[in-house]
Amino acid sequence: MAFESLSEKLQNVFKNLKRKGRLTEADVKEALKEIKRALLAADVSFKVVRNFIKTVEERSVGADVMNGLNPGQMVVKIVNEELVNLMGSETTEIQFQPGKAITVIMMAGLQGAGKTTTAAKLAGIFTKKGKKPLLVAGDIYRPAAIKQLEVNAEKQGVEVFSMGDQVKPPEIAKAALEYANKNNNDVVILDTAGRLHIDEDMMSELQEIKDTITVHQTILVIDAMTGQDAVNVAAEFNEKIGLDGVIVTKLDGDTRGGAALSVKAVTGKPILYVGMGEKLTDLEQFYPERMASRILG
Ligand code: GDP
């Protein structure tokens, strides 16, 4: 489970803080040093940790806290609030177009991040919201991707638009949109091709899709298990094609949690959902407050 070790370490720091009646500045600094170590061990990016610690320190060594009734408790509260801020403070919902207008969502991400699975998971969530999503098979380079999308879509009771693997993704996207119009779909989810690493072809293909049709939401899928690499990938995608939000998958297998903690701070883009398993129901809306509580126990 994510954050296991971070959670344990922070709880130890907090136990010590709360036990003390009065706190000196040195006590706070010592606690912050341990918090810093715990965050770095959780693979939170260094810059993010530095800023985090600075903010908590500035807020904690103020007279209000140090002379307050329960300084230890106050420091814990500040750490909690700043963890929530780090992850985006508020829950961000995917914005749909008004009325019957079609919302186009493009899924992006490296191969294996969980794009195809997450597209099908999202389709299920939208169906429950009363939408009529259309999944579009745009990952034409990975041999099994189209079939995988079809199998998952069928489980979700959602239709797939596919043109096989010979038509270019921007053309598929355009045809899919025409189909969606006739078919009364109100959400179109485009699965796209990933690569093992960021490369120009992938980026320009995504950009071409965006130049061909109006994409309302570009959502990047990142694999939590790859930690800071995932965050770097997110920064690069955001710079090159512009993101509206991020979905962090495989949080169920990631014991550290650094990607989930850093990605908003690094890219400025919110986490929308988190993947918590391989089953099609294992996608949860992301609540920064709940995540912070999960970490702090
Ligand atoms: P894509 O190449 O980005 O389309 O990746 P896939 O959707 O094919 O996913 C790659 C693998 O990750 C598959 O085996 C998925 O079942 C698995 N996967 C996706 N999301 C999650 C998740 O949240 N948790 C776990 N444990 N596995 C996931």
Automatic annotation (TrEMBL):
Localization: Cytoplasm
Keyword Nucleotide-binding found: yes
Catalytic activity: GTP + H2O = GDP + phosphate + H(+)
EC number per UniProt: 3.6.5.4
Domain SRP54-type proteins GTP-binding: 270-283
Domain of life, source organism: Bacteria
Swiss-Prot/TrEMBL domain comment: Composed of three domains: the N-terminal N domain, which is responsible for interactions with the ribosome, the central G domain, which binds GTP, and the C-terminal M domain, which binds the RNA and the signal sequence of the RNC.
Organism: Ohessyouella blattaphilus
Residues that coordinate or bind GTP: 109-116, 191-195, 249-252
Protein name listed in UniProt: Signal recognition particle protein
Key words of the record: Coiled coil, Cytoplasm, GTP-binding, Hydrolase, Nucleotide-binding, Ribonucleoprotein, RNA-binding, Signal recognition particle
Quaternary context: Part of the signal recognition particle protein translocation system, which is composed of SRP and FtsY.
Function of the molecule: Involved in targeting and insertion of nascent membrane proteins into the cytoplasmic membrane. Binds to the hydrophobic signal sequence of the ribosome-nascent chain (RNC) as it emerges from the ribosomes. The SRP-RNC complex is then targeted to the cytoplasmic membrane where it interacts with the SRP receptor FtsY.
